Amino acid sequence: MTAKSxxxxxxxxxNGGLTAAATLCLYGVKPLVLEQHxxxxxxxxxxxxxxxxxxxxxHELREYGPDDSKGEIRNMLESFGVFGExxxxxxxxxxxxxxxxDVRMPFGEQAYIDEMEKQVPGSRASVEKYxxxxxxxxxxxxxxxASAGAADQEVLKTEHAxxxxxxxxxxxxxxxxxxxxxxxxxxxxxxxxxxxxxxSQLSFSPFASMFYTFINRGAYLPKWRSHQFTNDLALxxxxxxxxxLYNTKCTEILVKxxxxxxxxxxxxxxIETRHVIAxxxxxxxxxxxISPKEAVPPRAYQNLNARNLGLxxxxxxxxxxxxxEELGIEDYSYFIYPxxxxxxxxxxxxxxxxxxxxxxxxxxxxxxxxSPEGTTIFEITTLFEPSVWExxxxxxxxxxxxxxxxxxxxxxxxxxxxxxxxxxxxxxVATPSTxxxxxxxxxxxxxxYQAPVWDSVxxxxxxxxxxxxxxxxxxxxxxxxxxxxxxxxxxSGDTFAKLTFISLFTVEDEKEGGQ
Length: 515
Description:
Elements: E1 9-11, H1 15-26, E2 32-34, E3 46-49, E4 52-55, H2 72-79, E5 86-88, E6 93-97, E7 101-105, H3 109-119, H4 124-146, H5 153-159, H6 161-166, H7 171-177, H8 182-188, H9 192-195, H10 204-217, E8 220-222, H11 226-239, E9 243-245, E10 250-256, E11 259-265, E12 270-272, E13 276-278, H12 282-289, E14 290-291, H13 298-306, E15 312-320, H14 324-327, E16 333-336, H15 342-347, E17 358-362, E18 376-384, H16 386-390, H17 397-416, E19 424-430, H18 432-439, H19 457-462, E20 473-475, H20 486-513
Parallel strand pairs: 1-2, 1-13, 2-9, 6-16, 10-14, 13-20
Antiparallel strand pairs: 3-4, 5-8, 6-7, 10-11, 11-12, 15-18, 15-19, 16-17, 17-18
Helix pairs in contact: 1-11, 1-20, 3-4, 4-10, 7-10
């Protein structure tokens, strides 16, 4: 039996929930974290098959950075006392569009621009302009974050004009406006699958920010998989006075007079609290957890109905009994798109079967001893619109997931000439059903809510007050205002924990004023 009252209860020990709890601990607040699984991390975890430990979901972590240029995420983790070993990814990515493009792009702004000019002669001016717009976008986000919700419109207009100009547009629209050649656009936009929308729909601002930080600060991987830093975070929370209850699910968020007053758990506890930080979806919170249900205003449901669920994950994990040198694997990160446009490749996520857009990682290219000597860890990720996978019958499940997994390996082999199948020692497939089972995310979605231009970062941040339907609830993680992805989810926990801390003081001031 746990204590009966906490200042803050955090639902979910995923990336956002963990950083939210750790930030509160730094500010002297002792939160309670409720986690339905028996370990922390959510998607940020690992698992073992045979002699291989596989990374569950992380492809690369941005905003970590080297010693002389530490990024936001590294500074935050180190402020919590989390100092794990992180390894730099050597190159940005290799992009393959069969029959059209096969290019390896480097990290570093100037190196990237030079390589683009080599691949697409005459593109330099437009690519340089694009990098400047990316830089302006990042500066705009940094100003808004520093303003703590009180951004001066005149400052935005005079000092961040490009940020305001590009924010209402899709990535493809901005690239067309600066007259970037189409081939260069395809190379620039290789990361689009990380945000789950084709470039005609994908908001320019979050893509530009993600792209710029990747290229200029590089990407990193935790030496011992993402479970390394999530486990370290959980331990630090407990060392700083926070409490984590595993195998414990929040079953109700209690509401009285429009404000949070407590939570109930599947262990039979009823806990008093005025603040809940939810590392889960608003659909789950407003659709299932709020009690009484009539405490949810109609506008909350209208908001939810306007949003679309992000894409679901499908990952093929291979433990190979040959080294990367023997296999001929030269790259860590591959993007292979079967169609000529991101719009057509996106359609591959809306059907079952055939070649699909895939993102591939080879862990040993970054961490040579990630598996026993003479072996390789190799993973292929694709995406599905959640409703597509719902059509798979239970009786067909193992056959279908195996067939798709083997087809994706075949697609990689055809696209690169690298042969893998004869050397597979361990073969595991995670489907949308797998992600749903382990994290509870609806339909196996790993991308939160879709983020088209009208519902991207800026509209969500600007609408925070209007979208707060019950006092005392904040959202973190992939479904929150900062969108999905490791760096965004980790950052969101810190941001919204600080807002919750401010609310705690506001409540205390109101109490004192009424005495």
